[in-house]
Amino acid sequence: MAPSTQQHLKQQKTNQTTSKNIPIVLTIAGSDSGGGAGIQADIKAMSATGSFACSVITAITSQNTLGVSAIFPIPLDHVASQLDAVFTDLNVAAVKIGMLADVSIIKVVAAKLRQYQPQHVVIDPVMVATSGDLLLKHSAISALKETLLPLADIVTPNLPEAAALTNRAVPQSEVEMNDMMADLRALGAKAVLLKGGHLETDENSNDLLITQDGFELLSAKRLFTKNTHGTGCTLSSAIASYLAQGNSLQQSVQLGKQYITGAIAHADELDIGQGHGPVHHFFAGHQDVR
């Protein structure tokens, strides 16, 4: 049984007072000017769960709680130079990958991962907008599947993203989630966390941790709040953070699920923006996560 997130965060504080070897986690993603998702959410989640966060920015978005008004992709050579700068100096224990935007960036990131071979790779395939519109062209989805997903320890799609990856309809039930498992295994990652948050009529929020030889159901009470901006970024970053600290994949996913559940449960304590606000990354208290 994995320890609770609260217990884990307290133990991290104790460990950090006796050791300077705080694990380093790299996030490769887009910037959210509103601070609720993307690079900003990743850094908060990694910090809150006890790791040191560094970043490679792939795009700059003009964004707030009401939506995205503009996207500026970072030039390809600068994405590559950021990756080289981080990997040639910092001892990166785990990498979390979010928004990559196009085929060229996907190929550069995949090449750098093969070059530097970090121990753990977590991919949150940011592919589908809340509206249901694809954020990646079909050519980019193909590149993601062919060059990047096979390098991952775990991929964390929500239901629309899993549908886009497998060319299937978006699941409308847990039975249909189960029916996707073979196709998700075929993507080549060591594991897939299929997130069931979109099944809003279900009493619980159930996720499937799918490995090459089995699966596990992870369940938490469904929490009703409009403040869920950045949940996917936050969960995948927490999983990467826990992997960097030496936890097994199963433990990291369990701890990540507990962390995001707590962050959502405390989201309404914040009053950020007029739309869909962020989750509360530091719900455990700043004194526990320094």
UniProtKB/TrEMBL annotation:
Residues 32-280 form the Pyridoxamine kinase/Phosphomethylpyrimidine kinase domain. InterPro entries: HMP/HMP-P_kinase_dom (IPR004399), PM/HMP-P_kinase-1 (IPR013749), Ribokinase-like (IPR029056). GO terms for molecular function: hydroxymethylpyrimidine kinase activity; phosphomethylpyrimidine kinase activity. NCBIfam families: HMP-P_kinase. Keywords: Kinase, Transferase. The gene is thiD. It comes from Marinomonas foliarum. This is hydroxymethylpyrimidine kinase. Its EC number is 2.7.1.49. Pathway: Cofactor biosynthesis; thiamine diphosphate biosynthesis.
